[in-house]
Amino acid sequence: MERIAEGEYAVMEVLWDEAPLTAADVAARVPENKGWSLATVKTMLSRLLAKGVLSHEEDGRRYLYRPAIRREDYVAEESGRLIDRMFGGRVPALVAQLAARDKLTPADIAEIEKLLKELKS
Amino acid sequence: MERIAEGEYAVMEVLWDEAPLTAADVAARVPENKGWSLATVKTMLSRLLAKGVLSHEEDGRRYLYRPAIRREDYVAEESGRLIDRMFGGRVPALVAQLAARDKLTPADIAEIEKLLKELKS
DNA sequence: ACAGGTGAATTACATGTGTAATCGACAGGG
DNA sequence: CCCTGTCGATTACACATGTAATTCACCTGT
Q1: pTM of the model
Q2: Rounded Cα gap, residues B28 and B95, in angstroms
Q3: Is there a cis peptide before residue B20, judged by omega within 30 degrees of 0?
């Protein structure tokens, strides 16, 4: 699966949330804090098409875009990549990291424990 | 803190593991599967210096390079960034992801549970 | 004293990315 | 039927990155 750049990822998020959409619709839904023009969004859509992570169907003179890969798959790949690079592939090392940095609230801890307990059953 | 590119990160890893080192030493320690020439490694060292994540001291005609940022800090920042982007900042969502993908061995689960239990005390 | 090796600095060049502007086709309103 | 707005496609351009080669200075052995 092709890598998706950070900016492009924001476009994918829009389409994972709702699809199919026209280029204009995507632009309207991209977080405003990006400050992208419609032209910029169109460039990203083209590049994502070229990467094969989007598909489009014609709708008259326009295209309707939709994701060609599943969000979970992409997210799994990216997080796996990070865990491999930074934690030698060891998930517990990541969790230890987060713990050491106080990134885990008591609620997080409870939730994770619940998840793990269910996993074992 | 400046972003570090993936290739550059491999150089940082070498220096986090052992420092200070000369450029030649770094090149010798970079994983061979990268297939980098000495020149390439020197380019990376310069860029990392420019980014302020390395420092160097003169040793006669050569430089000795050493990290100027701590590995934990960088790793924390990068993993935080990924968790924010892909999981809305929710660590349990990440763990759920890993679980759904069978990325957690029973040993991992046990280890994480132990970590969490200690956290609560 | 000079040649060759070695160091950093400078330059190179293709590709990816962020961020558009412009172009040419076409459709719909007057 | 023509103007104007809207589409996607093409082009633009600067900066980052991967991957070096080249240059210039200096040290060391003959």
Answers
A1: 0.92
A2: 37
A3: yes
Instruction: Name chain B contacts of A17, Cβ cutoff 8 Å.
Output: none
Amino acid A25 CA to nucleotide D3 C1' distance, rounded Å: 26
Does residue B6 reach within 7 angstroms of strand D, measured from its CB? yes
CB contact under 8 A, A79 and B97: yes
3-state SS, chain B, equals CCCCCHHHHHHHHHHHHCCCECHHHHHHHCCHHHCCCHHHHHHHHHHHHHCCCEEEEEECCEEEEEECCCHHHHHHHHHHHHHHHHHCCCHHHHHHHHHHCCCCCHHHHHHHHHHHHHHHC
Whether CB of B46 is under 7 Å from strand C: the answer is yes
Which tokens go with A39? 């032209």
Q: Are B53 and B67 in contact (CB under 8 A)?
A: yes
Residue located via tokens 């969790």: A95
- Among all residues of chain A, which has the CA nearest to that of B79? A82
Please write the tens of the pLDDT for every residue from A62-86.
999 999 999 999 999 999 999 999 9
Q: Which amino acid is at A13?
A: E
Burial of A70: CB neighbours in 10 Å, binned 0-12, 13-18, 19+: exposed
Q: Nearest chain A residue to B103 by CA: give it.
A: A91
